[in-house]
Specification:
Shape: globular
Distance between the termini: 14 Å
Helix content: under 10%
Radius of gyration: 24 Å
Strand content: over 45%
Structural class: mainly beta
Number of strands: 40
Number of helices: 2
Length: about 575
């Protein structure tokens, strides 16, 4: 379909925004093009029931999540013309009262002006105290250069924020000297620093270094590049979708992005090499310097939000419930032809509450409590011994659409086999020792989206080893038998979990939703997200099993499993 881009000519207004008089374009241009319309099949095997996705077409990065006037907002990268990434990307917009049930609104930002005519790419929202939200986003300009732009709500009294107006003086930041025009994108949520100035970082790559370029402003409209990046490293690629925020050192509560005191550490996150990596460290605002506790190493031992399919994530501070919430884009693992046949591509993860672990070494993630509103029929049991090479089915729930929590006890922990952790990559270890390879303590865990005869199955499991300094807990997700289809990705994922099984039991929670499985090991210390496409284990033909393929027995201390009801994700009549 031909893409229609309409420039606004002579339409300007004076916007009294955030207490400052600024000129702005009168409309965002999204009403000026016609959508590519078609009907999806009524029942699709891989379409989810409680994960966020638009009615059709391509979705990728979450953008600008926030809470405003009683409403949660999620913007996201969207191609209104088809199920593949396109050259006319926009900001779609949905709202919710509980982060689970959503209403799709008209699009927020579309390419209309020379500074974003070739796409409106990712960015963030910042709530200016007492004044309202502002969006910073990357525009692909007429020269295909990445520049940073600003937009503001037309009506601050509208809790849905349905209309957005672009700043007439855009772009407000352009690639600095030495930075190529295609390596300058994805502004973060801004923070108010110790000297009363605003700060924001932009992801970049320069002089063979991935980096967070720092800009500062007194009024949020005029920005000056700081002399040095807030952080840079030679051990990564180009930094996409950076995020920078404080976390409390002694509480699971979240804190506002501008909080600066001795009670917080700062998280620096960057997306590169198909994963979201992060560091925990100290921000020194007087020097505009970030000092990580542990630098990126460029190895599989770097800290990640998720060890599976999870990218381009964004957090925001939920001031209503005093928590920080994490969103991530979960892309498809089937073929381009499959996506075109489905008519859609991409999901958002379940929103996750995120906080600093008690030890201060890593972050912990857990599905937001609101997901429990979708719990339906429940099955549970206690103290069940699982002998070597045994398997049993968890019956009585909808296995293709479920929430499962299981806690394992290890009565024969002293018999675990030895593992030297030196230079061991957990993903390779899981690939070499998949769910069918017997060990002593493990593999044990769940077989999800499985056929009755186990021809298809996705295994999420643990192995326990003895290390040089105590026990080692390995969490794996084995997709090698996930589908009787050859054209889908069947990568096996793995992660070590920093827990001592002598002091606490091994827990696993998996959210299963037709073609996505989000798993949280060790009460959220390790997360693995899968996209799977079984040919047979779909709808009522999907089954859920507990298994133990180790030579030693384990005990299920407790198991709780629920059928999940469908989330209400609707759209207005004029959603395109």
């Amino acid at each position: 379909m031909e893409i229609l881009a309409v420039f606004l000519v002579g339409l300007c207004c004076v916007l009294q925004s955030n207490g400052i008089e600024v000129e702005a374009s009168e409309n965002n241009g999204c009403q000026n093009f016609q959508p590519h319309t078609f009907m999806l099949q009524e029942k699709q095997s891989y379409r989810t029931s409680f994960h966020f996705q638009p009615p059709r077409n391509w979705l990728n990065d979450p953008n600008g999540p926030m809470w405003y006037k009683g409403v949660y907002h999620l913007f996201y990268q969207y191609n209104p013309y088809g199920a593949l990434f396109g050259d006319f990307m926009i900001w779609a917009h949905s709202v919710s009262y509980d982060l689970i049930n959503w209403i799709h609104l008209n699009h927020a930002l579309c390419p209309t002006e020379p500074y974003d005519i070739n796409s409106c790419w990712s960015g963030s929202a910042t709530i200016l105290p007492g004044k309202g939200p502002v969006i910073l986003y990357t525009g692909i300009d007429a020269n295909h250069c990445q520049v940073q732009n600003m937009a503001m709500p037309k009506n601050l009294s509208d809790p849905f924020l349905e209309e957005w107006i672009k700043f007439a003086q855009n772009p407000i930041m352009t690639p600095p000297d030495g930075v190529e025009g295609n390596n300058f994108r994805d502004p973060t949520t801004a923070w108010l620093s110790h000297d009363g100035k605003w700060s924001v970082i932009i992801g970049s790559w320069n002089n063979n270094q991935g980096m967070a370029i720092l800009y500062r402003s007194e009024d949020f409209f005029n920005w000056t590049k700081y002399q040095d990046p807030l952080y840079s490293t030679e051990r990564t690629g180009m930094w996409e979708c950076p995020d920078f925020y404080p976390v409390s050192v002694n509480s699971t509560d979240g804190v506002d992005t501008s909080i600066l005191n001795a009670g917080v550490k700062h998280v620096m996150k960057a997306s590169f090499n198909s994963h979201d990596y992060y560091m925990i460290g100290t921000y020194v605002p007087e020097m505009e310097k970030y000092i990580p506790d542990n630098d990126f190493t460029g190895t599989g031992m770097d800290l990640r939000y998720d060890h599976g399919k999870f990218y381009a994530s964004k957090t925001f501070f939920d001031s209503v419930k005093n928590r920080r919430i994490l969103w991530g884009w979960v892309n498809e693992s089937d073929s381009i032809e499959d996506d075109m046949d489905k008519g859609w591509s991409g999901l958002q993860s379940i929103p996750r509450h995120i906080w600093l672990d008690r030890g201060g070494k890593q972050l912990v993630q857990w599905p937001i409590e609101e997901i429990n509103k979708l719990h339906g029929k429940k099955v549970s049991f206690l103290d069940k011994k699982i002998d070597s090479e045994s398997i049993f089915e968890v019956q009585g729930i909808t296995a293709a659409q479920a929430d499962v929590e299981v806690v394992f006890e290890l009565p024969e922990l002293q018999e675990a086999e030895f593992l030297n952790l030196t230079a061991v990559d957990p993903q390779l270890l899981c690939s070499d020792a998949n769910a069918s390879i017997k060990g002593r303590l493990g593999p044990f865990g769940l077989l999800t989206l499985a056929t009755k005869d186990l021809t298809e199955q996705t295994a999420i499991f643990f192995r326990i080893f003895k290390g040089l300094k105590g026990h080692v807990v390995l969490m794996c997700s084995d997709q090698s038998r996930s589908a009787l289809r050859d054209e889908v990705d069947k990568t096996t994922y793995g992660a070590f979990i920093d827990i001592d099984p002598q002091r606490e039991n091994i827990s696993l929670r998996s959210l299963i939703d037709h073609s996505i499985i989000e798993s949280f090991g060790g009460e959220g210390r390790a997360c693995i997200t899968n996209r799977v496409y079984p040919k047979l284990a779909i709808h009522e033909e999907a089954h859920l099993f507990i298994f133990n393929n180790g030579t030693l027995s384990v005990t299920i201390s407790s198991l709780n499993a629920w059928s999940m009801n469908k989330a209400q994700i609707n759209h207005k009549e004029n959603f395109i």
